[in-house]
Specification:
There is one protein chain. The protein is α+β, with helices and mostly antiparallel strands and 628 residues long. Helices cover 15% and strands 43% of the residues. A hairpin with a 5-residue loop joins strand 10 and strand 11 (172-178).
Length: 628
């Protein structure tokens, strides 16, 4: 009987303990909020605690920064004490649960702050009645009873093959191929044997970019766990010797100069020694050995825009002052000292594009600038004397988009300039490039032509072709054989004959400003029918613009009978300094009027039904949607 009573007491105690633990778990799970009193501000912060099978997890929110649901690595709840800790974000919170509150301390970067929290019900920001419910969306979708040649998914399918490159010796091409799990691995193909091998597996982490560094090394950027702290890796073309070259915590690596003439090194910038500041390093691509090239020590005036010559020598940099202008410095080739060159700002600026190795003066550069003009122009410039030598390219209507200089093989001659007007326009300069461009335009007509990669001897080229009706096709152009071979169609299931034209338009705003944009018209509109219109403002708003290109959203709408209007309103990029400045303080004012004037223009042209106009957008385009 005594044993029976003991057993009953043990079971009762166990049930009571389990009940207490369950009750405590219920008390701690949910959203806890408080105001954190920092040295110079008060910051609202939330911790969202969950429990499943006795295992706790949490995320945190900083609403004023728009940061929501950020995962935290460690969450524990023992003896009424909650411990939350993140090594990645260098924060820790310890609070004791008492009378429905958490009372404790928050630690960040070695500093402790009193931080007490109360439980709250987490709600979505804004008016939650505005978005359509899932049920309402299903009802709307059910209204469509027509059948179409292409599904919605057809327009948004990710390419199975992409990012083609060629090795310096021209014996291999590489590309990314999507596997059955949606991972874009890097494949290397032998052009002589057609043998393929997977050199880089994407696995769980995104490979941001890759390229050839010599014939025996592939270099790539990859993050860890989706944290966007991209690190540098290297692998041999057969997949061997795949190593991380920058194994540093809380560090982001960015490319600065690949040093084409140095087979073993390149220049990167990273915030290795100070999370707030990026500094340049010369790195060995086989061992990861580092050499710091410059010290960036003052977060109040951070150094940016490091400019290196072809030997990896730092020749210029800029300092951001007061968050609104730049002090630019250049290294004198004789004294080897950095000297102040000029002061620029976000509206009046210049940038060194390349060093001019066609002259004997080591201080001659190609400078792109709008300090003396409305549009960005390209000068030859002597940095030592700080004098403009000559203007080599300008356009009266549009700003320069790109400039490409050849390698040492052809004595660094300029191959071409390009600018973006209604379409991207390429201006060949060198005799060599004129010959290539003539051959490719004969093959592909008025489609956009981009040379993405070529071998060291410039005999084989990876070419990308695209248009408003074509997502893109990769080709291998052999200069010696004069052949063009298709490598991959990015969206082969979409037939160009079925797709809609993206038509460039221009009109005058109500205050006399010339505006440009595009309208994508379904076939019914081309046959004289007035169709429904969708206005799609671009994001930004400053410096960004719409372009003549394949737009899957506009093509989807056209396939369903809708026209899509995209306007480069004042403030958009590419049209010069005055046009961009004219958008200052005009969010919700003249920018919106430009969109309205664009709608009136296409209505006047008889393409659309004035009573059936909708608007949608993202980023600033979303704000413009709410203001329209």
């Amino acid at each position: 009987m005594k044993n029976y009573i003991k057993k009953i007491k043990y079971i009762t105690s166990t049930i009571a303990l389990m009940g207490t633990l369950l009750l405590q778990a219920q008390e701690i799970t949910g959203t806890w909020t408080g105001e954190l009193e920092l040295e110079d501000m008060t910051l609202e912060m939330n911790f969202n605690v969950e429990e499943e099978n006795g295992v706790y997890s949490s995320t945190f929110d900083v609403p004023i920064q728009g940061a929501m649901g950020i995962p935290i690595e460690k969450t524990e709840f023992n003896n009424l004490t909650l411990t939350i800790e993140s090594e990645e974000y260098d924060l820790k919170y310890i609070g004791e649960l008492s009378e429905g509150q958490l009372k404790g301390y928050y630690t960040e970067s070695g500093k402790d702050y009193v931080f007490n929290l109360i439980k709250t019900v987490k709600t979505l920001p804004g008016d939650t009645s505005l978005p359509s419910s899932d049920e309402e969306l299903r009802e709307i979708a059910a209204l469509e009873t027509s059948s179409f040649k292409y599904t919605v998914e057809d327009f948004f399918e990710k390419p199975k093959l992409s990012t083609f490159r060629i090795s310096p010796n021209g014996n291999y091409i590489s590309f990314r191929r999507k596997d059955e799990n949606g991972k874009n691995n890097v494949i290397v193909k032998n052009l002589n044997t057609n043998e393929e091998i997977t050199a880089i597996y994407e696995k769980e982490d995104l490979v941001r970019a890759y390229f050839w560094k010599g014939n025996d090394r592939l270099i790539y950027l990859q993050d860890k766990g989706g944290n966007e702290n991209y690190h540098l890796f290297g692998a041999n073309p057969d997949g061997s010797n795949n190593v991380e070259l920058t194994p540093y915590d809380k560090t982001v690596v960015e490319l600065a100069n690949v040093l084409q003439d140095d087979p073993n090194h390149m220049v990167v910038t990273m915030n290795k020694d100070n999370e707030e500041l990026f500094e340049p390093f010369k790195i060995n691509i086989n061992t990861g050995e580092l050499e710091k090239l410059f010290k960036n020590t003052d977060p109040t005036t951070p150094v940016s825009d490091y400019i290196f010559d072809n030997d990896g020598v730092l020749r210029a940099y800029s300092k951001l002052k007061e968050g609104k202008y730049f002090e630019n410095f250049f290294k004198n080739s004789e004294t080897k000292e950095f000297e102040f060159r000029n002061k620029t700002d976000f509206d009046n600026n210049d940038l060194i594009l390349a060093f001019d190795y066609t002259t004997k003066n080591p201080d001659d550069v190609y400078l792109v600038s709008n300090t003396e003009s409305d549009k960005y122009e390209v000068y030859k410039y002597d940095m030592k004397t700080n004098k403009k030598l000559e203007t080599v390219f300008k356009n009266d209507t549009y700003e320069i988009d790109n400039m490409v200089i050849s390698s040492k093989n052809r004595n660094y001659e300029v191959d071409f300039y390009s600018y973006e007007g209604a379409k991207k326009t390429l201006v060949p300069v060198s005799k060599f490039y004129k010959k290539i461009y003539k051959r490719l335009t004969k093959e592909f007509g008025d489609k956009e032509i981009s040379i993405l990669s070529y071998d060291k001897n410039e005999t084989k080229f990876i070419v990308h072709i695209s248009s408003d009706k074509l997502r893109g096709i990769y080709y291998l152009y052999d200069l010696e054989k004069n052949t063009v071979e298709e490598l991959a169609n990015m969206l082969p299931h979409l037939d160009e004959k079925d797709l809609a034209e993206m038509k460039p338009i221009s009109f005058t705003s109500r205050d006399g400003k010339t505006l440009h944009g595009y309208i994508t018209l379904p076939k019914a509109a081309l046959n004289g029918e007035q169709v429904p219109l969708i206005l799609n403002p671009h994001g930004g708003p400053f410096g960004v613009r719409n372009s003549w290109t394949f737009n899957n959203e506009a093509q989807l709408f056209a396939s369903r009978g809708y026209a899509t209007l995209q306007i480069n309103y004042r403030g958009s990029g590419g049209y010069g300094k005055a046009f961009q400045i004219s958008g200052h303080k005009q969010i919700g004012r003249s920018m919106i009027e430009d969109l309205e004037d664009g709608v009136k223009f296409v209505i006047k042209n008889g393409w659309v039904d004035k009573d059936k106009v909708a608007v949608y957008g993202a980023s600033y385009g979303g704000l413009a949607t709410l203001q329209s």
